[in-house]
Every structure is written in C-alpha cells, then in structure tokens.
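Quick question, first post here. What does this chain look like in 3D?
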Amino acid sequence: MKLIDALSKFLLISILLHSNFAFARNYEFIVENPEAKFYVDKSSTIRSSGNIDTWVLIDYTLGKVNKKGEKYFSMENHLVLDCRSFTQTMKYMKVYMGHMASGDVLASGSTNDKQPVGRGSTMELTLDQLCR
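> Answer (accepted):
Ran it through. Tokens below.
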C-alpha cells in the first residue's frame, strides 16, 4: 500500500511539474520601437509553407490604457504570420498589468483577427526577421 501511495504522489508531482513547464515560454528579444520591445518565443515557433506560428510578447515601456481605463504593460499574442501575403492572424491574446507577462491578467481570449502588416511598422521588422 505504501508503494502505491508513493507512486501516486510521484505521478501527481510529475504531472504538476510538467504542466507548469509545458506552458513556460522562452522569449528572445527581436526588435524595439520607442514605445515597446518585442520578443519572440523561438523555441515554440513552427514554420510551415510560408507561415510562422509563434508567440510574441510586447513589453510597453510606459504602458498602455485599455477602454476601461486600466493600465497594462505587456501583452502576449499567439500569431500566425504569413510571409507571402504579409499578414498576421492573432489566434490568442493575453494582457498583463506588469512588464514581461507578469502581474494580474486584465484580459485574455481566443480570436481569429487577420490583418495586413503595416509597411514600416515594428511588426514588419519582426516579420522580416522571422521569415528569413
């Protein structure tokens, strides 16, 4: 019986540890503008047929204010970037009160918002670096 209890505890701890690390992101700095620094999780980036599926962290230097008047300093976005059509499709977003995806989450949710990447924008620089 003690062996079964020990194995059960080991299994539970292994599952909990694995689930915490499975969602951890390893962001690398990629580009910045006067308002924010952009980071990409290159370790989870998937390239397929001219598309790049990746997570982008935007860390705002002075913060932004949402429609409710709440200030936030960072945002994680799950994006699919199309290197051929120069578009980005946001699949998921999460907005944080703190820098570097820290602090309380102000908003999060799935979306399927497809937009062209603006010429001369910071996202264009990000796309250029990732599409190489």
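The chain has a mean pLDDT of 85.
The beta strands are 28-32, 36-40, 46-48, 51-65, 71-82, 87-96, 105-116.
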